[in-house]
Amino acid sequence: MDKAILTCALTGVLTNPEQHPVPVSPAQMAAEARDAFNAGASVMHVHVRQQEPGKGHLPSWDPDVMESVVMAIRDACPGVIINLTTGVVGKDISGPLDCIRRIKPEIAACNAGSLNYLKIKEDGQWAWPPMVFDNPVAKVQQFLDVMADSGTHPEFECFDVGIVRSVTMYIKAGMLKPSMGKAEYNLVMGVASGMPCDAELLALLPRYMAPNSMWQSTLIGRAEIWPVHQKTADMGGMLRTGLEDTFYLPDGKRASGNGALIAELARCAERAGRAIASPSDARTLMNL
After folding, report:
1. How many other β-carbons are positioned within 10 Å of the β-carbon of residue 183?
2. Is 190 helix (H, G, I), strand (E, B) or coil?
3. How does pLDDT run across 212-224, given as a tens digit for each residue?
4. Taking the CB of residue 175, how many other CB atoms lie within 10 A of it?
């Protein structure tokens, strides 16, 4: 596509704000969103954290907290598109569903398949206890039903090649309603037990997607992610970065914040000869 939609993932999950410069409060989230918006991001991917002192590293599914953060972002970034996270482990998905119903975001993540979520240290010890990020089809359907009722477009998060292929089956099975916009795949690369951040692998993945769909890449890592961002831009994919995904610029230096990361992402699009999509452009491209 001629125009590139830039998404900023503002803060992510569990990163301790006492150790890393991630925003937590509504004011901090709005300030980071404004910097990213000014740098070219038309979509803000929103996680929220618990607001009590000492708990800013923990996620919150309180609709009141979500609403206060989203309202602050919208005030700071007129016309911005909100993309809510929904990822939870286990059968109880009442928190993210309540947030979708309250906010009615234009986009929400829909984690499209299960993954052994693992990371191993150099000494052979697990970085955290091995866990399963469980997203069976029935759970995916629950999310899609509430998104359809809320007028929300699902962004299918794909952590592995088999999940990409599963999304294509969901579409064929009619799980994506016509009112929910164009099918969109988000290729998540860099999770240690999922797809590696690899430009050669990226080049293969569109062949497994449904016709006339859109896709973007979410790349997790350090300076090594930037050549794959460039490959995404060159291939016509949509682009995402932010403090959820990386703290590092292409030269290996720490980013000052989300605005600096989005500015580098915009340069990837420009090198590919693509204009940066405005929020209005993005709504048209995704049929929101």
Report:
1. 23
2. coil
3. 999 999 999 999 9
4. 18
Residue owning tokens 């930037």: 226
Would you state the structure tokens that stand for residue 254, as one six-digit string?
């720490």
Helices then strands, each counted (H, E), the chain:
9, 12
- Could you report the per-residue pLDDT of 186-234, keeping only the tens digit for each? 999 999 999 999 999 999 999 999 999 999 999 999 999 999 999 999 9
Q: Quickly state the pLDDT bin for 82 (edges 50, 70, 90).
A: very high
The token pair at 96 is: 């993210």
Tens-place pLDDT, residues 11-70:
988 788 888 889 999 999 999 999 999 999 999 999 999 999 988 889 999 999 999 999
- What's the length of the chain? 288
Rounded to a whole number, what is the largest CA-CA distance in the chain? Answer: 50
Residues 6+ apart with CB under 8 A from 75: 30
Gap between the Cα atoms of 184 and 19, Å rounded? 34
- Kindly give, in sequence order, each residue whose CB lies less than 8 Å from that of residue 178, ignoring residues fewer than 6 positions away: none
Q: What is the CATH classification number for the domain harbouring 77?
A: 3.20.20.70
Count how many domains the chain has.
Answer: 1
- Exposure b/e, 123-140, CB count within 10 A at least 16 = b: eeeeeeeeeebebeeebb
Domain containing residue 190: 3-286
Contact indicator for 12, 50 with CB cutoff of 8 Å: no
pTM listed for this prediction: 0.96
Residue with tokens 């240290």: 121
Nearest residue to 175 via CA among 237, 218, 93, 113: 113
Share of residues in the chain with pLDDT > 90 (%): 93
